[in-house]
Write a structure and sequence with these properties.
Layout: E1 17-20, E2 22-23, E3 42-43, H1 46-60, E4 66-70, H2 79-92, E5 98-102, H3 105-110, H4 113-121, E6 126-132, H5 136-141, H6 148-161, E7 164-169, H7 179-193, E8 197-200, H8 210-216, H9 225-237, E9 244-247, E10 260-262, H10 266-277, H11 281-292, H12 307-320, H13 325-335
Parallel strand pairs: 1-4, 4-5, 5-6, 6-7, 7-8, 8-9
Antiparallel strand pairs: 2-3, 9-10
Amino acid sequence: MIFEQGPIRPPSEARSLLVRVSRNCPWNRCVFCPAYKGERFEHRTVDEVLEDLDALKEYHGDSPRSAFLQDADPLTTKPDDLIRILAGLRERFPKVERITTYARTQTLRRKPLEDLRRVREAGLNRVHVGLESGSDRVLELIRKGVTQEDHILGGARAKEAGFELSLYVMPGVGGKELTDEHADATARTLARIEPHFTRLRTTAAIPGTPLFDMQEQGEWEPLNDTETVGEIRRMLAGLEGVRTRLESDHISNLLMHLRGDLPDEHGALLAHCDAYLGLPEEDRLLFILGRRTGRLARVEQLDRAGVREELQGLLAQLREAGHDFDVVTAELRRQIL
């Protein structure tokens, strides 16, 4: 019972059946991404994937209700091959209600609409796309290989083909120099696309990535947690009237309860940001420390018996040892990724 699995999947696909359709990433140049570095992109054959599906069927039975196609851009697979894989998946797992995958903006933009529609009709329901930013300057900085207009056209093509569209935004990815531009341009881009889901994934400069090297060389200065919440708040303010579901479903995010349907819950989402930003500075530091050490999930939990005292003790230890709070908490954030 041997089958392949790729290294990553979206948080929302934690319970999904993982089916490796391709290996690695056809672009593989984004400065923030540690996955696939040094690995060659290749398509798996249909027979290989179908053999994996047989092994997965033996392992899981017919219980899975959702499936995720790996790795970074399975839509680059020939449409007829992908349709055969989708048919094989649905034949072996008849209870599956949702099939999703990662996709690159350029693939969505360039692939014929008829091919995308055929794949959608064969059972692929949702595509997860790394928007990261709507700013051309930020996209160039992080070597994303696309422009704002590419994102808008690719998003429109995905929706026209009938896919649910899930876009990932990276708060903080522009660093301190481009934070305002990143927030404003990303809001404008999301307003043009109106994806079904907008998912937050806070930037972390991971050792071994070009972004980490840029930080070490002083070419990119990260935002701290409070500055990041301020950036998110600014982006949200630009989404008034926009229809999308905001999800903060990645462990890197400080405010994981920041989720809701826009435009109906626009005011409530801004209020969540303001509630944190309006805390006394000491409480903000305690909450950050609590989140980054896994002790807290929400600001209100600071008032649980013994929690504040414990965190005050940890904060005092950091100060006595002369540690930089932002450096320590950034390292804690990296460790949980």
